[in-house]
Fold these 4 entries.
Entry 1:
Amino acid sequence: QVRVAESGGGLVQAGGSLRLSCTASALAFERYAMGWFRQTPGKEREGILCISWSGVTTTYSDSLKGQFTISRDNAKKMVYLQMNSLKPEDTAMYYCAAADYSCRSDMAFPYWGQGTQVTVSS
């Protein structure tokens, strides 16, 4: 059974940085694209970034480009989301998801984590 798990969320002051981590078990991690998404209550889930099995990055949100970066370490079976210059509007539940090989343009990833909460205080 594939399990995706995020970690690293928490409370941070505006202007600060945070790095989220995600791991996926029971799959050949190096063959999977990994994506990061976020959602706030009452709003649709928003795509942030995805990194393919070969390391190609897909940007889902142009507004977050440059503020957030994604990376992966296949040896550790981890993917990271580095978040800088955080603002209160970045407060959300952040999710990690996995899909075989390529990032999904429609964000239809088959495997999702439970999310990690990020709260940015003003």
Entry 2:
Amino acid sequence: VQLQASGGGLVQTGGSLRLSCTASGLTCGNYGIGWFRQAPGRERELVAAIGWNGGPTSYGDSLAGRFTVSRDNAENTAYLQMNTLTPADQAIYYCAAAYSYMDVMAGKLVYWGQGTQVTVSS
């Protein structure tokens, strides 16, 4: 089983990135998916979560207006669209899978991706 997070990179303040999380060895549609991020010296935090069928969705504090989580189960991939990025968003972003949306929210993650770096220049 593998989750491959990709799409990170360097972007200027106010820019956008779209992260992808592609699953192999599991049927993505059977799992809730969470996006997390961790900046140096800070604890990992939940960015967004999405249920197995595209809903429900949930976002970290103050992110709902800028970030959008989605999924394409036919492609075994989940996405995180990030707009109006600021240096505060700079972190390593991880995707993870759980047996349900509620398990994602409870932190009961089963599989983790390797992370993708997001760097926002001021």
Entry 3:
Amino acid sequence: VQLVESGGGSVQAGGSLRLSCTVSGDIDIPYCLGWFRQGPDEVREGVATIDTDGSTAYTDSVKGRFTISRDISKNILYLQMDTLTPEDSAMYFCGVGRGQEARWYIHAAYGMDYWGKGTQVTVS
């Protein structure tokens, strides 16, 4: 399984970005796709997750601002990020986990099985 993120960049506070993650390879159902971020403290935290049946979960700080979605036909995961703040600055990673629901993985980055290399988001 390979994941490749794109769409990061630098943006002013209040702006928007859309991250994309292209997923390739075979993944047994059920699985969960998710976006996680890691700041200078090196702690990787869940941002948004979506599982096989479409259920989603978000960390509290992004609710109402970020939206996770997927294009199943193209195997692409998205993260639309609006009203960005400097606190959103981080390296964003796409991950895949097998067997658990979105609401579990949002608090359990350690449970993801595969990771992309990340894309940097900087908000000033």
Entry 4:
Amino acid sequence: QVQLVESGGDLVQPGGSLRVSCAASRFTFSDYWMMWVRQAPGKGLEWVSTVDREGTNTYYADSAKGRFTISRDNAKASLHLQMNSLIHEDTALYYCARVTRVRNRSGDYEDDYRGQGTQVTVSS
């Protein structure tokens, strides 16, 4: 059974930074594109960012461009999201997900597994 375990969520002040991570296991991590999605309270799931298998190409939602950086370490089967200049609207449960289909690199992906999520709260 595929496992994705997120960590690193925390309470952070507006303007602050945070790095969330995802440990993957029980599948060949380097065979898959990976992405981060988030869900804010009372809202639907929102795509945040995607990285290709090698970590060479990355894609971001407009809300994340210039502030977030996705990265991966295939040797350690881990995925990361560095978030800077955080704002209240970034408050959400952040999930890593295994991508199974890329319909549109600007944000239309299919996934088959997600972790349990890690909570990021931006508040003063």
